[in-house]
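step: validate -> pass
step: tokenize input -> pass
step: predict -> running
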Amino acid sequence: MTSKKITVAGLVLCLSTLCLAQSYDYLVREAEKTLASGKFQETLDLYEKALKSGEFHYNDYFNAAVASAQLGRSDDAFAYLHKAIETGFTEINRLEKNSSLVSLHQDSRWQNVMDELEKKTETIASAFHEIHPEGEVIGLPEPDLAGDVSVEEALKNRRSVRSYADTPLTLDEISQLLWAAFGITRPVEDGPEFLRGGFRTAPSAGALYPLDLYVVARNVQGLPAGVYWYKSEEHTLVRISQEDKWEALSASAFHQTHFKTAAAAIVYSAVFDRNMRKYGQRGRERYVCMDLGHSAENVYLQAYALKIGTCAIGAFVDLWLKEVVGMTKEEEPLYIMPLGKVE
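step: predict -> pass
step: emit ->
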């Protein structure tokens, strides 16, 4: 290679590196590192540079507000908090309990921020249904009760998988996973209402079954993109939304890498009152979480047997996720489990 070609190649490499260094994602990642290490001026400089690119995320505005508050720049901090709310911030507890924002609490503008956020969350919450709307009902294939993989093999080899082949799943596979998660194994006719059809694949404290499951489909053969509620007592899916909600689902969980190629996701919610009527606060704080763990582990084991990967995700914006899948007012979101073929 001639020296001229080497010079040109070097120039291109330098320019590429410079562009990368100035990209929004790079700047935000660096800002998060400096914020964690307490370098607030450096953090704010990075966020201000990143936000000039025209891209934004409410979390970046929120972090910029934190850095501003730590530097005593209250005007900037309040401006960033309002921007965060405008672009989707809805986490009241996070705002109230963030110790880095305590310096703003005595400012009269703090109550304005709280009022704005409460009004926004109340507006979103008022749109939730009391009960699931009646939509198209899709019958699911009968689950296979005699697989080729032993329980012992699945237990030994099960892992959380965060990267998937960008290929479709089948309706049979979705059916099998949902049945493993929460399907009826012993029907009970004319039983108590809380049984909701009978005993299931996963144990539940008092057989109260507080969980509900949804499927968000992106790339499933025989199942159009959209959101579906799993009606376990009938082993059917009820279509909640005909819109492709995949991008919104990803956004609710901070665009984690799992969503890039996953074909679908199971979303868990709970109606805590189903447990609390019998067990009180212990039902909320302990038993519902136990039920979730039982059911999610079933998904992990069944997924391995089907050569499907999954990973339980608990990092998401509750109100966003609830809105994306169309939960009822009394439900609270618990988990997202993306699903995709193992690469």
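step: describe -> The longest helix spans residues 281-305.
step: cleanup -> pass
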